[in-house]
Amino acid sequence: xxxxxxxxxxxxxxxxxxxxxxxxxxxxxxxxxxxxxxxxxxxxxxxxxxxxxxxxxxxxxxxxxxxxxxxxxxxxxxxxxxxxxxxxxxxxxxxxxxxxxxxxxxxxxxxxxxxxxxxxxxxxxxxxxxxxxxxxxxxxxxxxxxxxxxxxxxxxxxxxxxxxxxxxxxxxxxxxxxxxxxxxxxxxxxxxxxxxxxxxxxxxxxxxxxxxxxxxxxxxxxxxxxxxxxxxxxxxxxxxxxxxxxxxxxxxxxxxxxxxxxxxxxxxxxxxxxxxxxxxxxxxxxxxxxxxxxxxxxxxxxxxxxxxxxxxxxxxxxxxxxxx
Length: 324
Known about the structure:
It comes from Leuconostoc aquikimchii. Required for morphogenesis under gluconeogenic growth conditions. The protein is α/β, with parallel strands linked by helices. It has helices spanning 16-23, 41-50, 56-65, 70-77, 92-104, 107-117, 147-153, 175-183, 194-202, 205-213, 236-247, 283-288, 310-323; strands spanning 6-11, 29-34, 123-126, 132-138, 143-145, 157-164, 186-189, 217-221, 225-227, 254-258, 275-278, 292-296, 299-302, 305-308. The chain has one domain: CofD-like domains (Rossmann fold). A hairpin with a 4-residue loop joins strand 4 and strand 5 (143-145). The N and C termini lie close together (9 Å). Residues 40-44 have low confidence and may be disordered.
C-alpha cells in the first residue's frame, strides 16, 4: 500500500497490548478504541469516588503505545501496596488519568494530552466520553449490571448491552471513534474477553452502525482459551457468531485462530482463574458466516499461561492488508 494503512483495534483489558506493541513499530496509522465499561479494581474505585471513565484499560494501552523511558511506564503501571490504606491497589497511572480528566473536563481530551506527554505512536480513543454500564442477560434469564459482576457470575451469557450511568441514558460514542472506523483499512477485534472487553464497544449505537457500513477489512483474533461462564465450550466460530450477532450483520472477513496445542500441565488455573480450556476451531462454521479462517501456531507460553504471540499475529494482519 502506498500510504500508511489505517488500522483500528477494538477491545480492552490486557489483551490488546500483545498486538499493539509490535504494531507501533511498523509503518501503520494505528488507532486503539478502548472500552469504558470497566468497574472493577482500581478503575472501579475511582469511578465510584469521582465518577470518571474507568482508566485501567486506557492506562494499559497508553503504556503499550508510548515511546518514553521505560522508567516512566514502570511508574504508570505501579500499584500501591495493599497496606497503603486509601491508595491500596491503585495504579499510579489511573490516578494520573483521573487528575488529567478533572483538569481537561473530560476523558477524551485528557487521554489526548497524556498521549502527547508519553509520545504515543498512534491514537487512543475511549469509545465514549462518559462511563458506561455493561448489562448482560444470561441463558437462565437473569440480568446483571456491571462488568465485574458479570465476569464473576460465571454464567452463560446470551447477549450484552451498555447504557450510560443513569437508568435509560443512551450511550454516545466519541465522534472521532466513528470517523476512525469509517476511514479504516482494517478493523481488528481483540484479543480479549469477548463479552466484557470487545462487545461493550461494538454495542454502542454509533459504533455499531459504523462497523456495519465501513469498507474496512474486519478481522477477529480468536481467544486461545475459553472463559468460565462467558464462553465455556465456545469454538472460534461461536465467538465469531456472538460478535457478528451483536453488530447485527456478518461483517467479519477473517478469523485468526491458534491451532497449536496448549500443554495440559502448563497453565496455572489458579493464577488465571477466569480461563477454562482451549478454544477448538471450526473452519466450516466460520466459512458459513462469510469469513475465512486463518489458523496457525500463534501461541506463546509464558507466566504459566497461554497468550498470543504478537509478532506472529502482526505478520498475518500485514499479509491480509497485502491481499487487499
